[in-house]
Amino acid sequence: MDLKQITHADNVRLSDDGRAVRILDQSRLPNETVYLELSSPEELYEAIASLRVRGAPAIGIFAGYALYVLALQSRETQVGPFVAECRKHRDYLNASRPTAVNLKHMLDRVLAVAESMPCADVASIQDAMGQAARAIHQEDIAMCTAISEYGLSLVKAGDGILTHCNAGPLATSRYGTGLGPLFLAKERGIPLHAWCDETRPLLQGARLTTYELQRAGIDCTLICDNMASLVMKEGKINACFVGCDRVARNGDTANKIGTSGVAILAKFYGIPFYVLGPSSTIDFTCPDGAHIPIEERAGAEIKEMFFEKPSALPEVKCYNPAFDVTDHSLITAIVTEKGICYPPFEDSFAKVFGKGAGL
Ligand code: MRU
Predict the structure, then answer these.
(1) Residue 357: is its pLDDT beyond 70?
(2) Can 245 be counted among the known catalytic residues?
């Protein structure tokens, strides 16, 4: 398969008639390739909650288009009630998942367009909301490309990269974040080897990361999450690259459950641990990881999904937090579209993002 078919696929976009959001249903991969066109509030909410669209930047792109598509359906002709209706849709969609801050950032951004045009007519506001949603998508493409470039500068030919969950084109746009350097390296003929944690319980590493890398012809090996320590000890890993769902001001980072364990192992074995993410994933209002809401999901994901028969008795209690927070002290650097931020992160964020970010 042509590499560009993977790195340049628009897995989230507006439908051809511009009235629905079209996605590749990630919950069906790798076995089925199903595209969905979603337009009702319930369908759009469900797509996020069920991880049909997932990965913080992709959720953000989806959210921008979703609010626009809902705004187009409004029957309100007066600006006040129209904006009030948009606000209701924003609140509803924002409740679909709590951890990835891109969801809130992009809903707020498209809503702010409507709120900033009190003297315009509804059609012009809808138009401007559509432009904002498209701009979010275009900006993500540019950010992921820049992040991939910075990430690639941190490794050398022949390196082994451990990754957790999925931070590739499916979760973003273009090259991805955590996987971006691998795709860029492939494009340039630089050999790297990816070690992919399968990422229990929803197997994003197995189902999505190896799906993307294998089809792109990138050398990759799938391991169970509990094998990472051994692979590191065997000297096969030169760096860890992961994405992020919300980065606090001090650098504490929420990402897929299991990420903090990888960071602790990396510290023990002296392997650099890099978080790669766009500025849209940094929550400058959040002081530290203790303030990041962690999503808890159904126990059935642990006991029943992906097994032919349940793996535990039905009455067994489950605890299924979907994310954990990696302490900033375990992170070697946070790679953003504006540059590579080293600790102390509050200082490097201030230097890179400046006053605009409220720092
Ligand atoms: O629950 P998911 O699959 O949405 O979790 C996704 C992750 O944890 C990703 O690593 C993160 O969103 C970054 S994607 C570039």
Answers:
(1) no
(2) yes
Q: Which protein residues touch ligand 1 with a CB less than 6 Å away? A: 51, 54-57, 100, 165, 167, 171-172, 177, 204, 243-245, 255-256, 322
Report the atom number in ligand 1 closest to the C-alpha of 255: 8
In this model, does residue 90 exceed pLDDT 70? yes
What predicted TM-score, i.e. pTM, was given to this entire model? Answer: 0.97
**Token reading at 26:** 């990630």
Specify whether the CB–CB gap between 323 and 257 falls below 8 A.
yes
Q: What is the CA radius of gyration of the chain?
A: 20
Sketch out the chain's domains with CATH numbers.
12-144 (1.20.120.420), 146-357 (3.40.50.10470)
- On whether the CB atoms of residues 25 and 36 are closer than 8 A, the answer is yes
Sort 92 into a burial class: Cβ within 10 Å, 0-12 / 13-18 / 19+.
Answer: middle
Lookup: tokens for 116: 């900033």
Helices within 52-121 (DSSP H only)? 56-72, 79-94, 101-115
Q: What is the whole-number distance in angstroms between the Cα of residue 55 and the centre of ligand 1? A: 4
Residue 225's Cβ-count burial label (10 Å; 0-12, 13-18, 19+) is: middle
Q: Which atom of ligand 1 is nearest to the CA of 202?
A: 3
Residue 314: is its pLDDT beyond 80? yes
pLDDT tens per residue across span 207-241: 999 999 999 999 999 999 999 999 999 999 999 99
Burial of 117: CB neighbours in 10 Å, binned 0-12, 13-18, 19+? middle
Percentage with pLDDT > 90 across the chain: 97
**β-strands 220-223, 193-197: how paired?**
parallel
Average pLDDT over residues 278-302: 97
Confidence of residue 358 (pLDDT cuts 50, 70, 90): low
Identify the three-state secondary structure at position 258.
coil
Torsion of CA 241, 253, 231, 225, to 10 degrees: -110
